[in-house]
Amino acid sequence: MKIKKKIIIPLVLVILIIIIILINPIRLYNKHQLKNLGYNETSINTILDNKLKDNVLKIEYNKTLDYIFSSKEFNKKNFDIYKELEYIELDDYTKNVNLLIKKGYNAKEINLILKSATNETLTDFLEKDYYENISKFLEFNFSKLENIDRYIKYQNDNNIDKELVVIYVNIGLDKEFYQDTTETSKFSYDMLINKYHGISEDFKPENLVDVPSEYGKNQKLNETTLKAFIKMSEDCKAETGNKLLVRSGYRDLKDQQDTYNTYLKSYGKTYTENYVTHPGFSEHHTGLAIDVKAESKDVFADSKESKWAYQNAYKYGFILRYKKADEKITGIKYESWHFRYVGEEIAKYMHENEMTYEEYYVRFLDKKG
Known about the structure:
The chain is an alpha+beta fold. The protein folds into two domains: 84-174, no CATH class; 182-365, 2-Layer Sandwich (Muramoyl-pentapeptide Carboxypeptidase, domain 2). It has helices at residues 2-37, 41-49, 53-59, 63-69, 79-82, 93-103, 107-115, 119-125, 135-138, 148-158, 162-171, 223-240, 253-267, 269-275, 304-312, 327-330, 344-353, 357-365; strands spanning 182-184, 197-199, 208-210, 220-222, 244-248, 289-294, 318-320, 338-341. The strands form three sheets. A four-stranded antiparallel β-sheet has the order 5-6-8-7. A two-stranded parallel ribbon has the order 1-2. α1 (2-37) crosses α2. It is elongated.
């Protein structure tokens, strides 16, 4: 018996050594393959330990998988969904993906949820029950996860195209004007100021300059806006024989309050609410808005200058801000005279695609969260 034990023990050791020798080169080769694809060391070990090498080699490099394989939250049973995901830089990515999978969301839905989320809005969303057909509201690149309940309610109340639902809710049209407003202290040429978005008390427009007297009496505008307007006015004169003039440019909070009070006294509350915004919510606070008048006639809409401006203003970076067809979106009755400087690129796009500035803003400029 002792002799047999002496023989068996070394034999087992030899076999183990042979197995190790045979296995290590295979693992080393597999690691080499995965490393060449771009996977990091932690991911490679996870792939090999879970016997997923062949699956991964078919996929080649996948940034999302590389991140998830490196996470302690990796769950092999979710692999088929993991491989369909587009990585979004959010906190606790793998953990949250697992929670979404557990709730019943598929890969397409998870991609849309994460794309439309912030860390804060995702945390709130994960506390809610499963939403059926959520992708119909989140398929647009301007969708916001935090608005999902509002999208659903607005759709139920109005039964309109879902893209319009998302746009209108993002604008704020599911709420009363001046309700749940935001404010900004930062000036920008593409800023949105309306009945939902105002300026703070410390807001200061940039580069305010006096309008030369031949273009307007006792008025100020942003310098870039003024230069564009003067060019537009001179070109208008060259083609129509008359200049465009500034009736009203920049207004501070007191000026806007005085304007509101004057209209209120003269025309009543309903009319005033339709035509004059509350102090803090007027584009005139930015120095980018101009109430334009014609040199030839008192009624701007009846002048040849107005017809020229409607056709050509976009070439100079201006938009007619409050059109008749847009009253429900802008919250302002038609103003034939109110132009807003947004820059030539935006103005050209809006001219070619016929949309309000609210729609343009929520589609292309608004930030998540």
